[in-house]
TrEMBL record:
Residues 136-195 are annotated as: Disordered. This is PspA/IM30 family protein. Coiled coil: none annotated. Belongs to the PspA/Vipp/IM30 family. Residues 136-148, 163-177 have a biased composition (Basic and acidic residues).
């Protein structure tokens, strides 16, 4: 009768911790535990409902037998008052049968009522334990997610400071410096080339001015 209470005990204390230690994914394992506990509770509720139904059935049989015994008692009195002793005797005989049935049903009913009460208490304990485990599950899931996040961050941070990453960063820095040096060199070359062109242009401009000046002097007879 109490077999359905057995599994739920495996989720308490060290056994739960051992299960989590072996699990690849604690979050999934916790959800599985809760589903199994919910199944146990549903099974317990069914058993309690059946026991209560059995208690009510036995109670009805006890009440019916008791009422029939009382009825035969009254009928025996009425038969005697009517002067029918034989009928009164048979009524009393049937009364004793119903009294025996009532006594038997009383014992069965009281036992069933006691069992139903025990099952109700066990079911209440299971539901309370389930709620406690649900709270613990939520806390453990939050801790597991937090731990996963911290692990990812730590791995990311450790990879940032690794020798390979640092060497790669230094290589890229050298390339940038090289690009900058090449750019400066090309600008210097362009600048020097521009200076030469400017001097040549200036020379041409000076020659033209000199020619124009000589022509003007000639015209004015200054030569």
């Amino acid at each position: 009768m109490f077999q359905f209470f057995k599994r739920v005990k495996t989720y308490v204390g060290s056994e739960l911790n051992a299960a989590l230690d072996k699990a690849e994914d604690p979050v999934k394992m916790l959800d599985q535990f809760m589903r199994e506990m919910e199944a146990d509770i549903r099974e317990a509720e069914t058993a309690v409902a059946k026991q209560i139904a059995n208690e009510k059935m036995l109670k009805k049989k006890f009440d019916d037998a008791s009422q029939m015994a009382e009825k035969r008692q009254q009928q025996a009195i009425e038969a005697l008052e009517a002067g029918n002793e034989d009928l009164a005797r048979r009524a009393l005989e049937d009364k004793k049968i119903h009294q025996g049935q009532a006594e038997a049903m009383r014992g069965a009913y009281e036992q069933a009522a006691n069992d139903a009460q025990v099952l109700r208490e066990k079911l209440d304990e299971m539901k309370q334990e389930y709620q406690e485990m649900k709270v613990k599950k939520d806390a453990l899931k939050a801790r597991a997610e937090s731990a996963k996040t911290r692990t990812k961050m730590n791995r990311a941070m450790s990879s940032i400071g690794s020798d390979e990453s640092r060497r790669g960063f230094e290589r890229m820095e050298e390339k940038v410096l090289q690009y900058e040096a090449e750019a400066e060199t090309s600008e210097d070359l362009r600048s020097s080339s521009r200076s030469l062109d400017d001097e040549l242009e200036a020379l041409k401009a000076k020659s033209a001015v000199d020619d124009e000046l000589a022509a003007l002097k000639k015209k004015l007879g200054k030569e």
